[in-house]
Amino acid sequence: VLAGYALAFRTIMFTILPAWGMSNAAATLVGQNLGAKQPDRAEKTVWMAAWYNAYFLFTVSLVFVFFAENVIRIFNADPEVVRIGTIALTYIGFGYVFYAFGMVISQAFNGAGDTKTPTWINLFCFWFFEIPLAYLLAFPLKMGPSGLFTAISCSAALMGVVCIVLFKKGKWKTVEV
Known about the structure:
Blueprint: H1 2-35, H2 39-75, H3 79-93, H4 96-111, H5 116-138, H6 145-169
Helix pairs in contact: 1-2, 1-3, 1-4, 2-3, 2-4, 3-6, 4-5, 4-6, 5-6
């Protein structure tokens, strides 16, 4: 299980690098636009970056969902490693579009100088939601590794939704740095 997850996770990290670049660019543009007293332009750049990120990660998720086994087989031929890696890429791929928004918007909060909001979002979504959900799905509900990977996708979805809701409230536009 660990070997399959490790291969899937390394693949995920490789494909997420361009998405992190877009997220960091959004943070920089937010800081610059807020510094120039143009909060509407800052907001527009975040949505633009988030949508581009979503398009990119959606494309990657299609590869993960439909060709996960082929991707994992590039790195390992062991049937059990391929099976678990395929499940991991497929399940986690379903959360990628949500994560695209979460990545960009949480970085936008940072770019605005609002570091508390993404800290609380990450603490809640990953520590208080994902870990207990992973345990619940994997053990009491007997889903095993599929439960773990489902929890990762659900957490990414929750993070994306929470980020969108908090971003739309606009409090980040008023942070004084």
